[in-house]
């Protein structure tokens, strides 16, 4: 996706420091992943054998939930909601239950390995194959233009987003927020996104060979914490889209890889700025008067 250069405040100004510390394009990367996936044909074969059956199954689950539970939920919400808001909140409540059921049944079992391959292939394509080599073999054949074909077998324990009982429990606890008029749905999306964000970047932690302490320290920095929240919130919104949610699982893996490359570039730039240059070195000592 071509980036548009926007005028930014001077980097050393107080306003520039505030913008860099509190605002991030992280929320755009799930959307960039859609464009990247659509425009890079080497990723398309990964859809075969996965997308159609998973989409049909998720569509059937949502259809059953809407037929059996939607009207009773709306009728209950209408008791204490304003006109129309009961329908909106009821819709998000049913979609949230559907996302929970689909996550329990299909995501970890059927989609995770495909997401790992997508993530690794994109990182290799963007020139960071040395990171992927920390976990799996990557062919050095420069004549092979397909990054996916350069990947060796997946490493033992490879995961894109690990199955989290804690996340499932929190999702169940937060679902009733959808009953709250107006503010309930945004709160539900933000709080579930806050938890989902770091899990969507788990493969990056693996190829960086982060230990648990390193991972926690990386996630809990002020800027990263909010970046993960916004990335996770957009991911949760996409997971509520009927039928297409399973496709967005794969495109979000692509977006996660692009964001990881962006983060890696930031880290490298920061290290280069901290390294002393020849001009910064003190003059050599001489004994001449």
TrEMBL record:
Region described as Disordered: spans on this chain: 267-289
Bias kind Acidic residues: ranges: 270-289
Keyword annotations of the record: Membrane, Transmembrane, Transmembrane helix
Transmembrane domains' residue ranges: 51-80, 86-106, 226-250
Keyword Transmembrane helix part of the UniProt annotation: yes
Membrane topology: Multi-pass membrane protein
Entry GO CC: ascospore wall; lipid droplet; prospore membrane
Listed Pfam families: EI24 (PF07264)
Chief localization: membrane
Subcellular localization, as worded in the UniProt entry: Membrane
PANTHER family: OUTER SPORE WALL PROTEIN LDS1, OUTER SPORE WALL PROTEIN RRT8
Protein's recorded name: Uncharacterized protein
Source organism (scientific name): Pseudocercospora fijiensis (strain CIRAD86)
Classification lineage: Eukaryota, Fungi, Dikarya, Ascomycota, Pezizomycotina
